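Much of what follows relies on a compact textual record of a protein's fold. The record below shows the convention in full:
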Amino acid sequence: MNDQIQIISLKTPKEIEREFLRIGVDSGGVEKMLPKSQYLLIKLKNIPTVVSNILKQEILSKNGEAAVHRNVINFKIEKSDIMLMATIAVLRNFLNGLNGHYFGIPQLKSDIEKALQNYLSHPESWVIRDKRFEWGSKTFIMGILNTTPDSFSDGGDFYDTDKAIEHGIKMAEEGADIIDIGGESTRPGSDPVTLEDELKRVIPVIEGIRKQKNIPISIDSYKPETVSAALAAGADIINDISGGSSDEIIKISLETEAPLIMMHMKGTPKNMQNDPAYENLMDELIQFFHERITNAKGKGLQKICIDPGIGFGKRVEDNLEIIKRLDEFRVFGYPVLIGPSRKSFIGKILGGEPKDRLEGTAAAVAVSVYNNADIIRVHDVEFMQKVIRMTEAIKKDWIK
């Protein structure tokens, strides 16, 4: 092969910009060409056939492409999904060309522009206690603290209050940005615990850590009573495995200004792994979050985080697809959390009990970081902090 020919594999705007500058492109040229160097696929669902034909012709005229159902052109179907394929520059020209159309196209144009803006930018930062969460600056670490006798991975290890407090402080010193405290196991097949038992497990631990550390604390619960008591005891964030299904929890989040982490789960912990199945995994997850976020925003909530729920009503292949396509959840404009730590999908691939899944967790964490996870929820904070730092050094410009 001729050594003058090189096929370039660059994934971020910063990488591409650096290569332009090496070539000697002037700053004005860099600014003009960057949008032409990034290629996106945008899927639109259930679009009326007349609109599908208009959109396809418009994007073709701008040197983009659109995949539609084969019967769109002859109007034999009423609706079709569409896959728009173009550089960012072409997409912007295409959207400008939609001005003046009918059939609901102006609203569709506005929705695409909003999604594009969310995807290409970072969410608004959070400030909790004296810590600023500047999304996009780094991947933040949430340390898992289960105060339960029966959690899938570390059940009983920190059931004792003093041991739990000690471990929470240890994770903070190892580099955790958030300590996530839960008093009810949500392992597959688990039963709910009483409110009284949950409160006895979590409140003393929150109070104990809070006396010694100013680190942000999240309460891992879907019960409004537990959430309220935990926030009053010193917690700062609500981690809700029910995905914001309770209007009461949304109300608590609004009144206390505590961010709400919405997780997707198919079913309940008791039945979620009873042969879960999806017709189209990512479509269903996006629809789920669209509905939950629309409801929460309609009530005034803005501080939201998305968790696709690794291991919660998911098959092995579903968990792997979520990690590979994690970047797609940025379309909502909120930070994204993922928790692959020691989960069973790793055991099914590599074998071993939960505490033997360090290497598999590290691989899942590294790929998640590369795919723009904002928060990683893990058991092994010190080890995974190194994995995250190394992955970020590869992904971004490493600074000594």
Q: What stands out?
A: The mean pLDDT is 92.
